[in-house]
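Homework help board

Subject: predicted structure for assignment chain

Our instructor gave us this sequence and asked us to write out the predicted structure in token form, then describe one feature. I got the tokens but I'm not sure how to describe them. Can anyone check?
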Amino acid sequence: MALNLILSESPRVRYVTGAMMYFAQGIPAGLLSIAIPAWLATQGVSAGDIASYLAVIVLPWAFKLVTGPLMDRFEFLSMGRRRPWVIAAQLGLCLSLLSMMLIENPVEQIGLLMLVGVLINSFAATQDVAVDGMAIDLTPVNEQGRLNAFMSFGKAIGWSVTAAVSGMMLVTVGMKATAIAASAVAAVVLLIFIAILEREGERKMPWTQGKAASKSLPGNSFKAVFTEINQVLWKRASVIVLAIMLFDGLVYGYGQALMPIAAVKLFGYTTPQWSQLVAMMGLIGAGIALLVGPMIDRFGAKRMLILTVSLLALHAFLISQTQYMWENTIYVRAMLSIWIMMLPITMVSVIALAMAVCNSRNSATQFAIYMSVANLGHSAGSKIYGVFADRATYVESYLMLGLLVVGMIVILLFHRHRHEQPSGNDKKKISRYTVGAGDGAGMYWSGAMRCPKCRADMEQIDHDGIEIDRCAHCKGIWFDAGEMELLSNKQAASSIDTGSHADSKHLNLIDQYNCPRCGGEMIKKVDPQQRHIWYETCSDCNGSFFDAGEFLDLSAYTVTDFFKSLVTPKRD
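My token output:
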């Protein structure tokens, strides 16, 4: 019996696949950004040159916004909406890692090393965009915290193990053998992923049998993509996320340049010693990150992010003010370990924060923009340290790191924060703690569930003692089982359904999503009398979702409705 590895049908498959693909992204991160900088430092390369190398190789991650629109626009749906892009990018990653064999003397060929690093990260960044888009498309909101934890765990294992192994191999067998080993591991990940499908019935490869199980989303021309992205990108919620992502990148890039250079040139670490420390503490941090995922679902990404970055700020200021302890081996090892361990923990909260405000229609593009800003900050942060290192002491360098973290905390404090505790057994008040993106609402945390169409928070509306959920942005309406029948009169419908059918017409064509209440499968429904009214019902909890204007239309049957039903195309 064949093993069915279907992402849309199994949370376990989603978790394992996310972790596996992020593991593959961790391979170039461990090699290019951890092992090689430490090795270059032992070879006498200056801090400025190493920082410039780090700033350049990360640039492909800053331009993922170019790849996102391509993925939202061009699809080979018989193999899945995102899966063909993942396969192509992973293959490119394997081949580009092999290209490192062209570098004979990395110390004297820094320019060529940068060029190859850019090529490798170009494919890694493309794979990342595709995997993130796939995660957003297929994962219910109430699973995203856990999925982010697994993905961060996978990446942490990838870069930590790669850093440890490649750090040893660079010293013992050289660049060429290290490149072959890294490429071989990436190839194994590719072969495993080929066996995984997004949805039932899709092709594994172009020449195998299968058919498209998903539909191309409407209005996915480049103009439509950027028009819609522009509409959501400059809302208060999104602008704050952009600022947070920028400062997160500055902190990460600055620290990534500072830490290995300080470890080698200030604290006397060898390349294998630094790489092994990164591996050990990275794995510990990844394990803690797994626990952070459910905590994000419970308490919100904002709270967890404030906690983690506050610890980073405390760490940076503490090490800058304890110069007299720098000769203590145990103290130095502990401080370096804390920084490494905190990276995957912080990444879980940051990714959850950005993912939560993405519109499902163009998720790859929007999320890529957020991550591009973060990675542009990453590049800038590394370059800032390179410039700063030639003019400042290590004490001043660590103080600058702390100030960058404080800047991130200040921005986080601009969030509007609303918290509603659940009471009793009322399932409407089961805490989701998700990010809202409604007009005028800014970014806030609430006990409401998320809109399955536009992903904004849904607000609770009371009508004659019956509480229903209405999207704060698109005005779509969610009814729990039995509520629709109680409120199906015109008077109630006109009070509840206040949105414009014309404005949300495009959302009516989005019918493949999970239940926003329980995560179950949504079934397409057509009203038997008014066949132009399409909606979805959960197969598990029997709740129903209506786009704006649909429920009001359903409450009254007119001659106009008769003619609308005659011209409405049949729903698949």
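Reply (TA_rk): Your tokens look well-formed. For the description, you could write something like this. The mean pLDDT is 76. That's the kind of observation they're looking for.
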